[in-house]
Amino acid sequence: MPQIARRALLATPFLLPAAARAQAWPNQPIKLVVPYAAGGATDVIARLVAEGMSQNLPQRVVVENRTGAGGNIGAGAVARATDGHTLLFSNTGHAVNRALYARLDYDPATDLLPITIVAESPMVLLVPNSAPYRDVAGLVAAAKADPEKLSYATTGTGGVLQLVTLLLLRAAGIQMQDVPYRGSGPAAQDVISGRLDVLYDAGFSAFPLAQGGQARALAVSSAQRSAVMPDVPTIGEAGYPAATFSVWQCLFAPKGTPEAVLGRVQQAVQAAIREPALARRLTELGAERLIANPVPEAARYVSAEMTRWETVLREAGIRPQ
């Protein structure tokens, strides 16, 4: 046997295992960990996507909620998983945690690999119907006239309600008083009654309030107008493109996961969200921009988001605790 052929044959066993493992994947049910409570938008979207993925893979995709510490309990568990069949379904909060928590048992930037951005959802800037301003310019003018007067809702440091509002405050050079709530539901009630001045809420819960005449929508945070209420301008059109924001959902895998496996997951997600029934249901939940981008694009997307939020939170005086 020629020496070159002999060396190639000897090398083959070292090349086959990784390729064979990737080709055989998945050979057991896939666990999709959601690090937030059941029933929330991220959880509902994850369950729909998991069902769609199950139709495009030889094994079922099962959702498991592992909550706590702003999503870090579930994310850390996935980062340490070694079974090759455990993935993370998280959202914008994943890009914020490194800037919020001084001590983590995993590194969000290196221990979890972004697979694909599933979707983006707009936030809606709501104010009471009794408010004297009818657009973002009026709101900004009111805040500048009395920086201590206006209030906005948060659901905790680093929550999306705070993040999207901080972008507007930063872009417009204004201040407002933050009021913590257990959730956006109670905050919405205070906007309706006029006890709260500003609520930046998720589209699937904010649009019905505006459409029903219970509150006034001044802008959507996304780069494009919403198909739900196309008459509402984007925050960029209102003069503050730097305040553009979308809540996103993303799948992650533990570092060391073969590229072929990452690609297969991305393809399964892409096939799932192309199904008209699932796409329609996701849109109803506020996921207006369905993406399922390739792995390299998802990695760049998440990296840019981490850099963005670290800067915003630092400038807002929020330090890791």
UniProtKB/TrEMBL annotation:
Q: Which UniProt keywords apply?
A: Signal
InterPro entries annotated for this entry? BUG, Bug_dom1
The signal peptide stretch is: 1-24
What the entry lists under Pfam families is as follows: TctC
Q: Which domain of life is it from?
A: Bacteria
Q: Which family does it belong to?
A: Belongs to the UPF0065 (bug) family.
Q: List the protein's name.
A: Tripartite tricarboxylate transporter substrate binding protein
